[in-house]
Amino acid sequence: MRAHARKSATGGVATLVRRAPLRGLRDRILHELGMDIVSGRYPEQAILPVETDIPARFGASRTIIREAVNALAAKGLVEARARTGTRVLPRQYWTLFDADVLAWHFAAGPDAAFLRSLAEIRVCVELEAAALAAIRRTDEQVERMMMAVEDMGSAETTELFAAADLEFHSLVADASANPFMASINALVRVALAAAFTMSSPVEDPASKRVTVERHRRIAQAIRDGNAQAAREAMQAVIWEGFERAEARAK
Q1: Which of 22, 74, 111, 167 is the most buried (most CB within 10 A)?
Q2: CA angle 231-166-123, nearest 5°?
């Protein structure tokens, strides 16, 4: 497997959703409060104790707490009001495409409903990415897709398989030549991490062969310029991954 794929896999499947290292107290507060909200420790409509418990918990100044809370507000998780305090917003307002918010969901343990929602939005976006890739791809991009499929086939660990799988889907997004498609990488990353954490095809040789072959069909359809076949093959891959993870989430 190529060096960059090895590097992305060395820390385990969880590295697929890991953000930049927490560089200071503000980042740690943001991460922990984000996890508290996503996991339900602070439920929707709850008032965050930003004047009392949170400063004592982290030993942080109000300025640093305010910076972390402002970052949560930018992600749609909370709203600060002068008289009522900082309130956790309903989930419908959260920026679910945000890489941190997705990573917090993954770390909290996604349920079947969340996994289905991920699969549904992937279908909405990745099918058309595959179709566009069939029209716009370069020969080099097709070659790299085929190499990623081979990496999946030769992977002997869940981590290596997951890294090659993510690389494949990133290549399809890049080959679509639509800059907005790159923004779905965080979503695909957490969907794959959740699926592989719950149930990896590497654990079952027959399942692994099926998964690899379905990815190969996507690459072949893109190579052949067959947009509809690329859509159908991508749809099969997305739902296969969801069904595998859902079986373990129930």
Answers
A1: 167
A2: 30
